[in-house]
């Protein structure tokens, strides 16, 4: 086994540590990924009508349905808004091109970015669950295994979508514009303005075919104690595979 092969994990670990440090120095990223979703939950939970049971939601309160929504907001923000700007900035400044001449391949940077933003989304989830439970008596997911599975698939879909945004954006300005064009429709599909459960039947069925509409339904089912519908999980897997293939085909290091 060659020396280069033995030394590969160490540069990758070093890149990951560096990206974690850089992320911690970005107050904007920390706020929008980690704090904004929970702040949104607190604002919504402060509205009295959001704390009353709704017969249209099977006795649930609106605040109960919004915990999965704000978790998805954190994922969408990390994958679609923040990560593409960082990767496109690296490409724009020639960092990825220069890395290709070193033992550290550009793919190490891409994987490190996905790990950092995926972990940030997980931290945002824990914060939202804790605040929802302590401040508004939102029950913790009754089907934790299904909830975790749906969560991980949703994170993968968000990162895959962000990779596509990075692939089609030549500059950070374009990445910001494309990311914003994708961000708000995905927020709608996640149920930010209208919970997916409350949407008209036809609209709800269409939204459930999108990655975050399916994720919202899967997380809601797991929170209620049911195993997430396999159709919703299948939609997440299909979108992740499709978006990953598109990102792999279109992504350029230079």
TrEMBL record:
InterPro entries from the xrefs? ABC-2_transporter, ABC2_TM, ABC2_TM_bact-type, ABC_2_transport
Predominant location category: membrane
PROSITE patterns for the chain:
ABC_TM2
* The keyword Calcium appears for this protein: no
Q: Where in the cell is it found?
A: Cell membrane; Membrane
Residues passing through the membrane, by range: 30-50, 62-83, 114-136, 148-168, 174-194, 230-251
Alphabetic keyword roster: Antibiotic resistance, Cell membrane, Membrane, Transmembrane, Transmembrane helix, Transport
UniProt keyword Transcription, yes or no: no
ABC transmembrane type-2 domain: from which residue to which, for each copy? 28-254
Membrane disposition: Multi-pass membrane protein
> Which family does the similarity line name?
Belongs to the ABC-2 integral membrane protein family.
Q: Which PANTHER family match?
A: DOXORUBICIN RESISTANCE ABC TRANSPORTER PERMEASE PROTEIN DRRC-RELATED (PTHR43027), TRANSPORT PERMEASE PROTEIN (PTHR43027:SF2)
Q: What's this protein's name? A: Transport permease protein
Species name for this entry?
A: Streptomyces gibsoniae
């Amino acid at each position: 086994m060659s020396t280069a092969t033995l030394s590969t994990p160490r540069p990758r670990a070093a890149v990951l540590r560096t990206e974690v440090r850089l992320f911690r120095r970005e107050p904007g990223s920390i706020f929008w990924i980690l704090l904004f979703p929970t702040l949104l939950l607190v604002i919504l939970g402060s509205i009295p009508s959001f704390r009353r049971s709704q017969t249209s939601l099977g006795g649930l309160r609106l605040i109960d349905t919004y915990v999965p929504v704000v978790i998805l907001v954190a994922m969408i923000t990390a994958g679609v808004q923040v990560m593409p700007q960082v990767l496109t900035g690296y490409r724009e400044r020639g960092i990825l091109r220069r890395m290709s001449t070193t033992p550290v391949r550009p793919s190490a940077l891409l994987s490190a970015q996905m790990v950092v933003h995926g972990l940030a989304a997980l931290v945002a989830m824990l914060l939202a669950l804790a605040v929802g439970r302590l401040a508004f008596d939102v029950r913790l997911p009754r089907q934790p295994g299904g909830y975790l599975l749906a969560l991980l698939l949703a994170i993968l879909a968000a990162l895959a979508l962000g990779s596509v945004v990075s692939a089609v954006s030549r500059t950070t300005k374009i990445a910001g514009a494309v990311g914003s064009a994708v961000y708000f429709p995905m927020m709608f599909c996640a149920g930010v303005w209208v919970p997916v459960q409350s949407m008209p039947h036809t609209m709800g069925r269409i939204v459930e075919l999108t990655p975050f509409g399916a994720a919202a339904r899967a997380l809601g089912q797991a929170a209620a104690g049911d195993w997430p519908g396999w159709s919703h999980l299948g939609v997440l897997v299909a979108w992740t595979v499709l978006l990953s293939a598109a990102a792999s085909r279109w992504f350029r290091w230079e």
